[in-house]
Design brief:
The structure holds four protein chains of four kinds.
Chain A lengths: L17 E6 L2 E6 L4 H7 L6 E2 L6 E2 L12 E4 L2 E5 L10 E3 L1 E2 L2 E2 L2 H9 L1
Parallel strand pairs in A: 1-7, 3-8
Antiparallel strand pairs in A: 1-2, 3-4, 5-6, 5-7, 8-9
Chain B lengths: L4 E2 L16 E3 L4 E2 H9 L5 H8 L12 H12 L18 E2 H4 L10
Antiparallel strand pairs in B: 2-3
Helix pairs in contact in B: 1-3
Chain D lengths: L5 E7 L3 H12 L4 E4 L9 H4 L3 E2 L9 H19 L10 E5 L2 H16 L5 E4 H7 L9 E5 L3 E2 L2 H14 L3 E4 L3 E7 L2 E7 L4 E9 L5 H6 L7 E11 L9 E4 L4 E5 L5 E5 L22 H12 L7 E13 L5 E4 L6 E5 L9 H14 L19
Parallel strand pairs in D: 1-2, 1-11, 2-8, 4-13, 11-18
Antiparallel strand pairs in D: 3-7, 4-6, 5-6, 9-10, 10-11, 12-15, 12-16, 13-14, 14-15, 17-18
Classes of the chains: A alpha+beta, B alpha+beta, C alpha/beta, D alpha/beta.
Chain lengths: 113, 111, 524, 381
């Protein structure tokens, strides 16, 4: 829904291989090799992580790998800059909560702290 | 600053401002008020502020907030931004996994 | 450890240009870039560039990037992508991450062309998802084909803010407002004018008071500021947006230079922390050069020349050309660079208030404050003339370094002269043949072909049109004024899209003749 | 202006030693001026070390200071200074991978036991129990449960802050050229700027730079400097609270409260490292950080995906015999020396500061520092 289908200068997007990936347990589609953040944006995902101290949502900010705000847990590894990490088939992408995946258990843990 | 600075110089009282809770360092979640307070605690250089508060010490290493922090500290000290020496530039320029940094191409160093 | 004669860091416009000049002279050159694709920001630039032929004027940025790459390839430059330089150490040693390994390289010379990073400003809610840099917006839409948002508010009226706003429109987003705390527009008037005529409102002396939303941006409140940039209570305006874009300037990314021991200075005129360099880019460390935005924020066009200068210098440094040959090349490049650094927006004029053009014509106040030249102001410029039959009307009102229109007209109707910042003049005696080349050649989209009186009470106005869908011939819509207001009914009489126009469609609309000199955009 | 530049004590060097001494002196009612050559407080090793607060592995001559600090000062330090110094007293493992390593560790352990320190050898199983993240390459370690770590940058600045609040006058950007005796006593401190400072006592705590300054009153501390490096990772989930080191002292580190790991280590060629860094900010070598990574991964394989976000370098002032020079110099009245900490000054800094304050005000310390006196150096035969 956020993809540009035809552009007055750049024309139609190049045909690329479609892949499926998993975002917080939900199956989604994207283009092979595009940055993970772009695939998420195309699927309407805005929140990439919650911050450690204040638990505030963050998403894409600089989109070129510099600000590190868009980091998520990718295939189990935290702090992956999704705006510069290419999407691959079958990737498991999780919303990051501090440095952990955002799960209910972590939520409970956090509220206790 | 590269000049003689007497840290007992009077910079006035810390006066709370309405936007003190504004987040400045996005990575380490440091607010404007904390930075201003640190200046009144005697942290008068960008390097001291970093070491004291962790501004610019997070994942992005200050690439987003450096300029903002500099502006706040300069205003608090009543000096221009150009007078404040930025923090040292250090490698790695981008975060790099231990296993990658440790995985050097085998070379003859003194070649 | 591999040794190269020249290691260039950054495959953007300046880095590639530097590499080309060095390689052309026989040096062994490698360029490292952390990105998957070369070209730096050029590939995000889908607008036509300003300048003269030498500066690749009227060519779109990404095409310039493609041409540079081709040139680099031909010259034998090795471009290493996905190659992140993590540090620059003693004796010009560069450590590079490539895939899952780090490599050590030594350069006899190093050229740092790492470009710039975006500045940011803070406001309540600035960390919410949906608040992004203008560069991020460009990356999303022009590289990856993703719309940054549906409704966008742009903060910053410099060229980046103006150009990206236009690109947002081209990508199919709505730009609800363009906001700047400064009392006047910072970028080229022509860039502002092409936004205004589509109906984007400008709010100068305004800033963002708050971004609304819990999980992501749902709206934004802007507020007027006084001369001290303090918010004026009671002037708040709310917009329903999902995206806030910041285009508030750039800072050089000079960390590698600092790390390698180059003497640095904080120079607000150059945009922040920059290396101390000589006029051709050599730093305080012999053999280390800096080129492009990393040594001072400017346009890509000047970055390319700076890069070429550094490339020539390293060639001489390593004995691949004589001192005389170097000086000759540099003299030429210097001339090109100086011609770009002319006019109202020249680096030397930064911060100065300019009220008259070099020709002595008063600058449009409305253009600076509202983004469009007011009707009563437009007639004073030499490109705006009245004639019978079809003729160009050139609404180019500021001295900017650009002259493709002069060469575009096969009939010599348009003249600028030697100094490329002169305002274009429409020559009286030469006759327009309605070929449209001038309209398509104008990077500022400021040229229109007007037939003021078709004899039937109507006039035709040909406008540059770079949006989709392209209106059908015969379609009835509206003629919009310079401020984007609906002025009159308009009928599309032709839409020309030929290759030479390079994606700038020429849309001709018929309007009542009293709107010949005011209808400047078409909306269905 | 001479009056303004006068204090009971003038301290040269605003590292943690200078800052801590200044704080404890103000607490004892003394007026203090602290002079710092660089622009930053704590610009040398104080802010660049690995944060160890250890007793184990130390030379018996400085062990009393280390034990005193951990018993009396560190536990209440955050509260006293009003800033969280992130002190953790959760033990130090000094790790061994070879029999030779174990031999070194046993030697150190025996000597420490003789000084009354609770430190003991543990086998591979016990090590794993203490820290399950360690690799199987570790075959034993020495374990000192009362050791720990703290945040060196914050601790240094906390001493500075509190000393400044208590009236100590800190002046940065003021490198010192000479000391001058007045009627037999070291009294005047003359800066490169030609500013003159005057104190009843002058303490030199300027790291390696102390050597040049002390020379001006005929005192020479036999030391050299080496450029060492550290690195820090991104924040990780909490893994372990101990301070870690190795038998050969080639790698060390801990996990900070922030979650990041701080590791230091050597490549083996630091004796000859070149420094191209800007003034007061030593540069890194291209090969040390990768070497530290390889070293650490041998001990903690699971950290292989942790991302390094920053590396840095810092000089250590290494004394001829590996322990600092502390205290008065008998034949140079008015002079107090506190330098040549040899890369392990941070952990003992509060104790050094407190004892130097006692020495200056009472004329004696309560901890035996006689083994660290200036006059100890002699030819080998």
């Amino acid at each position: 829904m956020n993809r540009i289908e035809n552009h007055p200068i750049l024309g139609e997007p190049q045909k690329t291989e479609k892949v499926t990936f998993c975002f917080d347990g939900q199956e989604m589609n994207g283009n092979m090799g595009e940055p993970i953040a772009m695939a998420l944006k195309a699927n309407g995902v805005m929140i990439h992580r919650y911050t450690q101290k204040e638990h505030k949502p963050r998403g894409i900010f600089c989109a070129i790998g510099r600000c590190t705000d868009c980091v998520m847990i990718v295939d189990g590894k935290p702090n992956v800059r999704t705006c510069v990490t290419p999407l691959k088939d079958g990737m498991v992408i999780q919303t990051q909560d501090g440095v952990m995946p955002k799960t209910e258990a972590n939520e409970v843990e956090r509220s206790r702290v | 600053m590269n000049t003689i600075v007497d840290r007992t110089k009077d910079i006035g009282e810390f006066i709370p401002q309405p936007d003190d809770d504004m987040l400045i360092c996005r990575c380490e979640e440091v607010t404007k008020g904390e930075i201003r307070r640190a200046v009144h605690d005697g942290m008068w250089t960008i390097t001291e502020i970093r070491r004291y508060l962790r501004t610019g010490m997070g994942l992005c290493q200050g690439q987003t907030c450096a300029r903002l922090v500099k502006g706040i500290v300069a205003r608090e000290l009543g000096i221009s931004m150009a007078e404040l020496e930025p923090a040292a530039a250090r490698s790695p320029m981008r975060p790099i996994e231990m296993k990658v940094l440790g995985n050097e191409e085998v070379t003859d160093l003194w070649q | 450890m591999k040794r190269y004669e020249v290691i260039v860091v950054g495959a953007g416009p300046s880095g590639l240009s530097a590499a080309i000049e060095a390689a052309k002279r026989g040096l062994k050159v490698i360029v490292f870039d952390e990105n998957e694709k070369p070209g730096g920001q050029l590939f995000k630039q889908i607008h036509k560039f300003f300048g003269s032929k030498k500066h690749h004027a009227k060519i779109r940025g990404f095409k310039i990037g493609e041409n540079l790459l081709e040139e680099a390839n031909y010259a034998g430059v090795e471009v290493a992508l996905n190659a992140t330089v993590i540090g620059l150490y003693a004796d010009k040693e560069v450590v590079v991450r490539r895939n899952d390994q780090v490599f050590h390289y030594k350069g006899d010379c190093i050229i740092i062309a790492t470009g710039a990073a975006e500045n940011m400003v803070t406001f309540p809610g600035w960390t919410l998802p949906g608040v992004i840099g203008a560069g991020a917006a460009q990356t999303m839409m022009n590289l990856h084909g993703i719309k940054p948002g549906k409704k966008v508010l742009m903060l910053g009226s410099g060229n980046v803010g103006l150009v990206v706003s236009f690109q947002l429109l081209q990508a199919g987003c709505e730009v609800v407002a363009l906001v700047d705390a400064a009392p006047q527009i910072g970028g080229y008037g022509v860039h502002a004018a092409k936004l205004s005529r589509t109906g984007v409102p400008f709010y100068l002396s305004h800033t963002i008071a708050k971004a609304h939303g819990e999980d992501c941006v749902t709206g934004v409140t802007i507020c007027e500021v006084d001369s001290q940039f303090k918010l004026i209570a009671g002037t708040e305006k709310y917009f329903d947006v999902d995206t806030i874009c910041m285009a508030v300037g750039l800072s050089p990314m000079s960390q590698l230079l600092k790390m390698s021991g180059c003497l640095m200075e904080d120079n607000p005129k150059r945009g922040g922390q920059v290396p101390i360099i000589d006029e051709f880019g050599e730093t305080s460390v012999p053999g280390i050069f800096a080129a492009g935005d990393v040594s001072g924020i400017e346009e890509a066009s000047s970055a390319m020349i700076e890069g070429r200068m550094a490339g020539v210098c390293v060639a001489e440094y390593l004995g691949y050309c004589t001192h005389e040959e170097k000086n000759e090349s540099l003299a030429e490049l210097k001339k090109d660079l100086e011609s770009l650094r002319q006019g109202m927006f020249a680096p030397a004029n930064r911060g100065k208030k300019i009220t008259k053009t070099e020709e002595g014509i008063e600058i449009s106040d409305s253009l600076l404050k509202n983004g469009f030249v007011a009707e009563q102001e437009i007639e004073r410029y030499p490109g705006v003339v009245h004639k019978s039959g079809i003729h160009p009307v050139i609404e180019c009102t500021q001295n900017i370094p650009c002259n493709p229109c002069q060469d575009a007209c096969p009939k010599g109707c348009i003249s600028i002269g030697e100094n490329i910042t002169n305002l274009p003049v429409v020559e009286d005696e030469n006759v327009c043949i309605n070929c449209g080349m001038c309209v398509a050649s104008c990077s500022g989209q400021a040229i229109f072909l007007v037939d003021e009186d078709c004899g039937d009470g109507s006039a035709t106005v040909t406008i540059p049109y770079e949006f989709l869908p392209i209106p059908e011939v015969g379609e009835k819509g509206f003629g919009l004024g310079r401020n984007g207001e609906r002025l009159c009914e308009a009928t599309v009489v032709s839409v020309k899209s030929v290759k030479a126009f390079d994606h700038t469609n020429l849309l001709t609309m018929r309007v009542p003749k009293e709107y010949a000199m005011s209808a400047r955009f078409y909306a269905s | 202006m001479a009056v303004v530049n006068k204090a009971d004590v003038v301290i040269i060097g605003a590292g943690i030693i200078g800052c801590a001494t200044a704080y404890y002196l103000t607490k004892r009612g003394k007026s203090v001026i602290v002079l710092e050559a660089s622009d930053n407080i704590g610009n040398g090793g104080s802010s660049r070390n690995g944060g160890g607060v250890r007793q184990s592995g130390r030379d018996p001559r400085e062990l009393p200071l280390a034990m005193y600090g951990i018993k009396e000062l560190w536990p209440g330090l955050s509260e006293e200074l009003g800033v969280d110094c992130e002190y953790h007293k959760e033990g130090n493992l000094r790790l061994g991978k070879t029999d030779k390593h174990l031999e070194i560790l046993e030697g150190l352990t025996k000597r420490a036991n003789a000084c009354g320190l609770d430190v003991r050898m543990v086998n591979a199983d016990e090590v794993k129990k203490i820290n399950p993240h360690l690799s199987d390459e570790v075959i034993g370690a020495s374990w000192c449960p009362t050791d720990g770590h703290a945040n060196p940058m914050i601790t240094t600045l906390a001493f500075y802050r509190k000393a400044r609040m208590s009236g100590a006058r800190f002046i940065t950007g003021e490198p010192i050229k000479t000391l001058r005796r007045v009627k037999g006593r070291v009294k005047e401190v003359i800066a490169e700027s030609k500013n003159v400072y005057e104190g009843e006592y002058v303490m030199v705590a300027a790291g390696y730079e102390s050597r040049k300054i002390l020379e001006t009153v005929g005192v020479d501390v036999p030391m050299h400097q080496e450029l060492m490096e550290c690195l820090v990772t991104e924040a990780q989930q909490k893994m372990f609270p101990q301070m870690l080191g190795t038998a050969e002292a080639d790698f060390y580190g801990h996990q900070s409260d922030h979650g990041s790991f701080v590791f230091g280590g050597s490549s083996g060629i630091e004796m000859n490292n070149k420094d191209i860094g800007p003034k007061n900010s030593p540069g890194n070598s291209a090969i040390t950080a990768p070497c530290i990574c390889r070293g650490i991964m041998k001990y903690f394989p699971e950290l292989e995906d942790a991302k390094i976000v920053r590396t840095w370098a810092g000089y250590i002032d290494i004394c001829q015999d590996g322990v600092p020079v502390l205290g008065f110099v008998d034949d140079v009245p008015g002079l107090v020396v506190a330098c040549a900490f040899s890369g392990h000054g941070f952990g003992i800094a509060p104790a050094v500061g407190e004892q130097m304050a006692r020495l200056i005000t009472d004329g004696r310390t309560t901890v035996d520092i006689s083994g660290l006196r200036y006059g100890r150096f002699k030819a080998k035969i």
